[in-house]
Design goal:
By secondary structure, chain A is α+β, with helices and mostly antiparallel strands. Chain A has three domains: 136 residues, no CATH class; 81 residues; 208 residues, Thrombin, subunit H, CATH 2.40.10.120. Chain A is 37% helix and 26% strand. In chain A, the strands form four sheets. Chain A has an eight-stranded antiparallel beta sheet. Classes of the chains: A alpha+beta, B alpha+beta.
């Protein structure tokens, strides 16, 4: 279990989300599909009790250790509650769709092969002078055509299933007008009270930074500055919400990003701990931007980061030491440098300073690497993001693959200095899945997959904690 | 040694010498002539101020177009294939190459309709020759050289006048290709002047340039 950071992966986040959820629970539900499960009232009751205890402790003894334990208890209860109340779809629509799409592609390939075989048989049939052979060839063609018809039917049925999945997905994610109104009301209330300094309802200095509605997950996401999160009470805020807007089922997620301290608002700045996407320079050329950090990784017992080999040693001068940022301090030494396309253009830099499993967003927050892609996930059309020192955040989709190098071609725009930067998919909020690191630019980035490294002889694995 | 053995020895040595001299001559860049091997066809590709000759041989197909993206180091070949086939193509290193930062050769990637194609390669200091088998449904073959975001375009379109591989176009042709007057290039030891009568460009030797300017037929370009 992750013990920090953002969105639903974060223990505190789920706790707080649940905290508010439970305070609002007693009245009629809007967006939560109730499962026919008699555990629900019991869980609701238990969660309510925990909330009361947390509130009491927060207001009276303020003993952080006790509060922490109560929060931990609450988290467990809330997790069970979420599982049985189906706040997320049980069907993974995207994966289901992808599976069928791959089946269609395979069937299409078989159809093409069969058509070629039929054409050849037909040619033989037309040209043969052996009379006995003709019925045999005709029968063979007939059988192959039957197989093709069956495959056609299968393809059509799969296409229908995809349409149905899309329909279900749209239906599931559709907001009712009431819920949409509710989410908007909450967003407006929170913005007025916690973000908009010009509003007459503004509560003054507080740690809420950003508020947004997540239509897919049907919730309001509240981003909180971690540095000041200790002075913030979601329970009190929840009570205010209930008092002001009434009590209903609405999920509010409190995302507490890992504290990243950067000296500036771009990835060119100095960041400690280190995160993916920020600027690197070589020890032998300290004033020149060499590239970017890819992602936190481990090699055996060593911790460090992955970047492109040409970022570490461009001209074959033997450089291994890396600085962050340009003209900055040494942050690590490359222990693996695999130059060239045949090797996958990657390096592992063992760090001497702290590094997070995060990717740069701004001077104080970061995406959290929650997982990494499997080798079958680098499929054409997949929509991906990248963060690099020069062009920061950009996006595009996968256009093809180069298996011999473990590389993938994309339409993601990149600039000089982005080499080595992180390529990833956003799973939810700021939780991401890492796909690889930038290596080349061909009217769109090439990236080397995480799987090329994981399956390589050095067993370099992306770190998710 | 019999007369026959002498004859064969003489014949073999002569043959090797002829081949060696012939090949040396054929690849001598100082000689101004075109590729003349009957096995190979040549595609002329004009990029900026230069015409590059690309010798190739294709089995079961025809090349309908070749273009290059100099910034991306991507050479795209449009193919009309009639069956499974094979393309053998000579790539002049100054047109497209695939080198690492330490100047050593790295491999090209060859993609057909976004899927990697296996190929074989031979090379020398001037060119690299790729032999690429392709499928019946291949309509486009893309050859990409190493191109790091930090050194974009360094492996492509390095125009120099080096017949028979690449030719600097005459000034008027450069203009027709869309080159601005300020970007017109002249061969070594020639200087750009502007014809007084119609402001057209010309490349002249120092001596001729002085004479023509003196007579008012041309003016110096600065």
């Amino acid at each position: 279990m992750k013990n920090k950071k953002m969105t639903t992966i974060n223990a505190k986040t789920i706790l707080f989300a649940g905290l508010i959820l439970t305070l609002i629970v007693p009245i009629a539900g809007i967006n939560i599909v109730r499962a026919e499960n008699n555990q629900i009232p019991q869980l609701e009751q238990q969660m309510e009790q925990k909330i009361k205890q947390i509130q009491q402790e927060s207001e009276l003894s303020k003993n952080s250790e006790i509060i922490k334990n109560l929060e931990s208890d609450y988290y467990e209860l809330n997790q069970a509650y979420n599982e049985i109340t189906q706040i997320t779809p049980k069907i993974d629509y995207v994966n289901e769709w992808k599976t069928r799409d791959l089946q269609i592609m395979a069937l299409d390939a078989q159809q093409r092969a069969s058509q070629k075989a039929i054409d050849t048989l037909q040619e033989n049939l037309d040209s043969t002078i052996i009379t006995d052979l003709k019925p045999v060839l005709k029968e063979e063609i007939k059988q192959m055509q039957n197989e093709m018809n069956k495959r056609d039917q299968k393809i059509n049925s799969l296409k229908q299933e995809i349409i149905e999945l899309e329909r279900q997905s749209i239906e599931f994610h559709k907001l009712t007008p009431q819920l949409e109104q509710k989410l908007n009301d909450i967003e407006k209330y929170l913005s007025n009270t916690h973000v908009d300094e010009k509003s007459s309802d503004f509560v003054g200095e507080n740690p809420v930074e950003v508020i947004r509605i997540d239509n897919v997950q049907k919730k309001v996401v509240v981003m909180i500055d971690k540095e000041r999160s200790s002075v913030f009470s979601p329970a009190v805020l929840a009570q205010r919400l209930v008092n002001t807007l009434g009590s209903e089922y609405v999920m509010i997620e409190f995302a507490v990003p890992e504290l990243v301290s950067c000296t500036g608002s771009t990835p060119m700045s100095e960041c400690r701990p280190l995160v993916g996407g920020i600027a690197l320079a070589r020890y032998d050329a300290p004033t020149t931007l060499a590239g970017s950090i890819g992602y936190k990784a481990t090699k055996g017992t060593d911790t460090g980061f992955v970047t492109a080999a040409h970022v570490v040693d461009f001209s074959g001068t033997g450089n291994t030491k890396m600085l962050q940022p340009v003209n900055g301090a040494q942050v690590g030494t490359a222990t693996i440098i695999k130059q060239g396309r045949s090797n996958g253009d990657y390096a592992f830099v063992k760090t001497t300073v702290s590094i997070n499993d995060d990717i740069f967003i701004n001077s104080s927050s970061a995406y959290d690497i929650a997982s990494y892609a499997s080798s079958s996930e680098h499929t054409s059309g997949s929509f991906l993001y990248k963060v690099g020192a020069t062009s920061n955040l950009s996006w595009g989709s996968i256009t093809g693959s180069i298996p011999s190098a473990g590389m993938i071609t994309t339409s993601i725009p990149v600039s000089g200095g982005d080499s080595g930067g992180s390529v990833f998919k956003v799973i939810s909020g700021t939780s991401v899945k890492i796909f690889g690191h930038i290596t080349e630019n061909h009217s769109g980035a090439y990236y080397t997959t995480v799987n090329h490294l994981i399956n390589g002889i050095y067993n370099i694995v992306p770190a998710t904690t | 040694m019999s007369l026959l053995t002498y004859f064969f020895s003489f014949f073999s040595i002569s043959f090797i010498l002829i081949c060696f001299v012939g090949l040396s001559f054929a690849f001598d860049p100082s000689q101004e002539y075109s590729f003349s091997d009957s096995v190979f066809q040549t595609y002329s590709l004009i990029v900026k101020n230069y015409k590059y000759e690309i010798p190739y041989n294709i089995l079961n197909g025809t090349i309908t177009n070749i273009k290059i993206d100099c910034k991306s180091v991507d050479l795209t070949i449009d193919v009309e294939s009639t069956n499974k086939g094979e393309l053998q193509i000579h790539l002049y290193r100054n047109l497209i190459d695939s080198k690492l930062g330490n100047n050593s050769d790295d491999k090209f990637f060859v993609l057909a309709n976004s899927t990697e194609l296996p190929f074989t390669e031979t090379s020398d200091i001037i060119s690299r020759t790729l032999t690429i088998p392709f499928y019946e449904d291949t309509s486009q073959i893309k050859i990409t050289g190493v191109n790091y975001p930090e050194t974009s375009g360094i492996n492509a379109c390095r125009g120099i006048h080096n017949p028979p591989y690449s030719y600097l176009l005459p000034p008027l042709q450069q203009i027709r290709q869309g080159t601005e007057l300020i970007d017109i290039e002249c061969k070594q030891n020639l200087h750009l002047v502007i014809k007084s009568e119609d402001s057209s460009p010309a490349c002249l030797t120092t001596e001729t340039k002085s004479k023509l300017i003196e007579r008012g037929w041309a003016k110096s370009f600065s």
